[in-house]
Specification:
Elements: E1 2-6, E2 9-14, H1 26-35, H2 37-47, E3 58-62, E4 71-77, E5 80-81, H3 86-98, E6 108-116, E7 119-128, E8 131-138, E9 143-153, E10 156-164, E11 168-173, H4 186-200, E12 217-228, E13 233-241, E14 245-246, H5 252-264, E15 274-277, E16 283-294, E17 297-306, E18 308-313
Parallel strand pairs: 2-3, 4-6, 11-12, 13-15
Antiparallel strand pairs: 1-2, 1-18, 3-4, 4-5, 6-7, 7-8, 8-17, 9-10, 10-11, 12-13, 13-14, 15-16, 16-17
Length: 331
């Protein structure tokens, strides 16, 4: 397997050593993986300590839904399986071109088409002089579900906006909680992010309009509004997803969700760019590329640009005598 990071967030790419993951589509294979002890044991082995950590992330490569895509992927984290992952899509685009799985010109753009649980996405990999320079992925349609939803928290009542970018996200301005998106407030951001997610997760706002397999608030996006650049809005965010994982990147599918919200609010038009910063200072660029209709909503097709880098290659094993088995997680 190969490890990457995208804007600081890890992504572990697993291509072999897996039990059979049954299903006719990637979404069906996600359901199978969720119910299979054998498949999930591999996820646990790779995400848990001592081989991983509470914020590890990765994906199992699986067959595409049909011949229209190059491959499929099941995204996973310490608590289970995601429906979408933008930073993973960026990493997979860079990886597929770098290893020659997808033939690419030395100079120019190459499309890597990937089936994910929420649908089909396209990573556009730009090479210069034979080297991957940047990757921009075009996501499934993103849209606003609800605006200005009241949420009672331990820090007082706040208002959340809910939008979909392959997964459902609740967005709350950090200052309304007395916080900033800065590293020395990490513990507080994780705690309140979890609180807001679980406060909303069982409400009607957390129901996907057309497929219950995509239900649930996946993460809370806490953001600082940093005003405008010449190209469009600039914001800094941290996404607290799953059950308390902190995304080191600006969150790819979360950026899509934020683009949909900003477009709805009239702050991001076609041709403008959201400069979306992370808690560690890395950046994604988010854009509206098309206005569409999806799942009963006015929606936008978004493009999120970033970059991913290989960090290592490994073969992990499980000694049958190891009393820790597939490992543990302390958070």
């Amino acid at each position: 397997m190969t490890d990457y990071h995208t804007a600081g967030e890890p992504f572990r790419i697993v291509t072999d050593g897996l039990p059979e993951i049954r299903g006719a589509t990637v979404l069906e294979r996600r359901a199978y993986a969720q119910s299979s002890k054998d498949v999930d044991a591999v996820r646990q082995l790779l995400v848990n300590e001592p081989r991983g950590h509470a914020d590890m992330y990765g994906g199992f490569l699986v067959p595409a839904n049909d011949s229209g895509a190059d491959f499929g992927v099941l995204f996973w984290h310490k608590d289970g399986y995601s429906t979408a992952c933008g930073h993973g899509t960026i990493a997979l685009g860079a990886w597929a071109v770098r290893i020659g799985r997808i033939a690419a010109e030395a100079d120019g753009d190459t499309e890597v088409v990937i089936d994910v649980p929420s649908g089909r996405v396209v990573a556009r990999v730009t090479c210069v002089g034979g080297e991957v320079e940047r990757v921009a992925f075009r996501n499934v349609p993103a849209y606003v579900v609800a605006l200005d939803i009241p949420v009672e928290t331990s820090r007082g009542a706040v208002r959340a906006d809910i939008s979909y970018g392959g997964a459902l996200y609740a967005a709350v301005e950090a200052s309304s909680l007395g916080l900033e998106v800065v590293p020395n407030q990490t513990a507080e951001l994780i705690a309140i992010g979890r609180e807001i997610k679980w406060a909303l997760n069982d409400t009607d706002w957390a129901r996907h309009p057309s497929d219950s397999r995509l239900d649930g608030i996946y993460g809370t996006i806490l953001y600082d509004d940093l005003g405008e650049t010449g190209e469009g809005p600039r914001q800094r965010n941290v996404t607290i997803f799953a059950d308390g994982e902190l995304d080191r990147s600006p969150c790819g599918s979360g950026t899509s969700a934020r683009v949909a919200l900003l477009a709805k609010q009239g702050r991001l038009a076609l041709g403008q760019t959201l400069t979306h910063e992370s808690i560690v200072g890395t950046t994604f660029l988010g854009r509206v590329v098309e206005q569409v209709h999806a799942d009963g909503h006015d929606a936008v097709v978004t493009e999120v640009e970033g970059m991913a880098y290989e960090t290592g290659r490994a073969t992990f094993t499980l000694d049958p005598k190891d009393p820790l088995g597939t490992g543990f997680v302390l958070r």
